[in-house]
Design a protein that fits this description.
Elements lengths: L13 H8 L10 H14 L12 H8 L3 H13 L3 E3 L5 E3 L16 E2 L11 H11 L9 E2 L4 H13 L9 E4 L2 H12 L5 E6 L3 H9 L3 E6 L6 H19 L3 E4 L13 H14 L2 E5 L23 E5 L11 E4 L2 H11 L6 E2 H10 L3 H26 L13 E5 L5 H9 L3 E2 L15 E5 L4 H17 L3 H4 L10
Parallel strand pairs: 3-14, 6-7, 6-8, 8-9, 9-10
Antiparallel strand pairs: 1-2, 4-12, 5-11, 10-11, 13-15
Helix pairs in contact: 1-3, 2-4, 3-4, 5-12, 7-8, 7-11, 9-10, 13-15, 14-15
The structure holds pyridoxal-5'-phosphate.
Length: 486
Amino acid sequence: MVLRSESGPGPIGATSLAALLGDWRGSDRGGLARSLAERIRLLALDGRIPSGTRLPSERELCDRLGLSRTTVASAYARLRELGFARSLRGSGTQVRLPVPRLHEPVPGGHEIDLSRATLPALPWLAETAREAAEDLPSWLHTDGYDPIGLPEVRAALARRYAERGLPTDPEQILVTLGAQHAIALLARTLLGRGDRAVIESPTYPHAFEALRLAGARLVPVPVGGAADADATETGEVEAFEQAFRRASPAAAFLMPDFQNPTGRSLSLEARERILSAARREGTVVVADETTAELDIDRGFVAPPLAAQGNAVLIGSAGKTLWGGLRVGWIRADRELIARLAQARTVGDLGTPILEQLLLARLLPRTAEALELRRGQLRAGRELLTGLLAERVPGWRVPPTPGGIATWVDLGAPLSSRLALAARSRGLVVPAGPRFGIDGAYEGRLRLPLCGDPDELRAAVGILAESWDDLPGVEALARPDARAGII
Ligand SMILES: Cc1ncc(COP(=O)(O)O)c(C=O)c1O
């Protein structure tokens, strides 16, 4: 739950804060006040409580949590000491991040960051960038940026869709500053304040943040839950159908392939059913296909969702080619593309031409890039799975046939405690609830399949040490005691 209003984050009520805090007690040998402060600190660090949010009064929170006033007062005092809160003039306490960064730096040390699942640039990127720079002189007399996309880039992206089974006119493409920009632009164009938007849960957190910021009321549909994939899919499709029927949402945001974070993919039949349920309600389906082509060994290649029915597609060069390009795109009908181009100028004025020229030169080698990514992700998956099996054998890594991350089952609802313990050892890893819109997923941890192997080794070492040190974990290893903590 992320709280915002148009003029910045508003106050958070005691009930909402209690929901975000989840099961925070007993996590810490340092006492209740410290546990409470630490959990609020985690929520601030991972963005679930935006900087600037006013916390409930001490009295409200102690009533809601059944604590003494002294405990809440000393938790707030500790947050202030750590630089994560400040007293407001008059009364009240406001959350703030001590530095203008997402994460605290580790004093004197090197921080490992698993909060982003990113891949290194393609080996041929630098050389291709030099070639693209040679194309630049003929553009130097122009502004150097444009709000829709260069004709050759739109044409190349349209060709790529056609190769994947979806005939596309270049006029159906709008080039953006990455997929995140595309999500935010679509959210504020398609949604009005109070409109309902269906969203998978768990999901990519910056997506639901963008929908919320646009004023949408979110309707979560649980996805990727159980080990039995077929049973899960039937339940999931029915949940989508019910959500469409009950909420008549203006839009639905989903990831049909290698969903982030769960890694699940929908069968073609499931996609048909979801699209027809959306059509019946007049819901615009937005499919984020940022990682859709990152197949490792799924065994089927899905066409873009719009090949099966009406859907707006989001794509990105971010994972296949390089995140540093900051180029993505939207495929939609011409009318929506025109609306998006118009709406765009409030947030930005266009995509730089040099990056687009580079993209135009990289796109013809997409198949080669995907082959390389397949190898990298496979190697990352094998390394991660092996390390986890060795160091934390009680965790379950679900089958992950593609995508950039895996959704590890910890076997106990300790994800926030683990994330805090790991952070104090120099590892930034988002706790499971970061991916839910309602504070669930304490039993899960999203870990990336990509990244530097040495960093991954060090990260798993920190996770294992932090895990073994958590109160109650020792008991989990005893088969008869496992039920106690869950
Ligand atoms: C599902 C999903 N959508 C969008 C994005 C943002 O992509 P970009 O870097 O193109 O903005 C990411 C990045 O991790 C992602 O995983």
